[in-house]
Amino acid sequence: MTPWTQRCIRQADCILIVGLGEQEPTVGELERMLENTAVRALKQLILLHKEDGPTPSRTVEWLNMRSWCSGHLHLCCPRRIFSRKRLPKLLEMYERVCQKPPDRHSDFSRLARILTGNSIALVLGGGGARGCSQVGIIRAMHEAGIPIDMVGGTSIGSFMGALYAEERNANRMRNRAVRWAKEMTNVLKKMLDLTYPITSMFSGSAFNRSINKIFEDKQIEDLWIPYFTITTDITASAMRVHTDGSLWRYCRASMSLSSYLPPLCDPKDGHLLMDGGYINNLPADVARSMGAKVVIAIDVGSQDETDLTNYGDSLSGWWLLWKRLNPWAAKVKVLGMAEIQSRLAYVCCVRQLEVVKNSEYCEYIRPPIDRYGTLEFGKFNEIAEVGYQHGKTLFELWNRNGVIDNILKDRPIDNVAKTRSSDVTCPNTTFTDLAEIVSRIEPAKTLAVDG
Length: 451
Known about the structure:
Elements lengths: L2 H9 L2 E7 L8 H7 L6 E9 L8 H6 L6 E7 L9 H12 L8 H9 L4 E5 L8 H12 L5 E5 L1 H12 L2 H15 L2 H6 L12 H11 L11 E7 L4 E5 L4 H8 L9 E2 L6 E4 L8 H6 L4 E5 L18 H9 L11 H9 L1 H11 L4 E4 L14 H22 L1 H6 L22 H8 L13
Parallel strand pairs: 1-2, 2-3, 4-5, 4-10, 5-6, 10-11
Antiparallel strand pairs: 6-7, 6-9, 8-9
Helix pairs in contact: 6-8, 6-16, 7-8, 7-11, 8-10, 10-11
């Protein structure tokens, strides 16, 4: 390592370790020297892939051999990146390339936004079949020219988000989502999956197979776009954020509604994982803590009925039964036991949703899908079209009002590291931040002298 290289490394804010994804993940000599050097800069692993080559795989092997890397990105590269032309030919080729307008949806544009703190995150909330509308909104986002640099989700949002992070194409995402939705409408498979209801009504085998058929053995690390999903850890009574591991398992865990499906045992530590909607149904704050400048959050959760009957200090079930059986009696709106339990489970989530909606970094979207039920997957096309039309209208309004321009505008470099503590519920403090706090020298105090 030359003195100049050492100086560059010492002064660097971020060091990119670039490798070819299709090659063996061996550690190079420069990497070994870098590992043994006391450098506090962030180190990102960048894996290059040919645009006509296979999709990313074995990323975990690259990361395991480089535990000192703080993150990784996959870049789909055009053929010219791998060309072996002479320098004059290369200069001529890139002069032509630079004359074209930049593609904000390209992986290189995403890399630039992430490195400069200008990334745009898409967060998809839970809500059962209403999540089909997210497919339409994502299509409208593409048409409006809004790039997506990070994807996160809860429950059905984790599933839809994983599809997009793997495909990066709204049409291919839709085709795979339609196939899964048809599986969800198969009554025979549901009947065969019924079990003695000690923990849940269904064993979960049929549901597992439906998700596994979509994602197979894909790992979260192998997705094109950085991705996370939320689950509720009922063993540790905590929120879990999953950014690595088996994709289908953590999607399934994030979609595990209590009493319908059994908790999923985390293959890493055996903890019981349930639907992430119980603790954070729209995790925009998590995306913010991961470095997103702007978070576009799509909420498809159910809206609770608030116009309920005031029945006084006590309530007779016989009186309610009479009201329901008597066709001439005035109708009353009273919550059942299941509804009460459901609302209690989501109390924390509702409060968190209000915090997200009122935050400065979040663009909150809620399509008009309240008339659709949680399990109406048979209406996939209709719900997706509602989402598309709503997104198309909304993004046209954003375009006229300058919202899209503001989203795409780079923020000043001085503001990249400034994240208010109120913006995130789980701040992501790095070692460099802690070192700066510890080593900060307070200014000398001026003593007041009486005259």
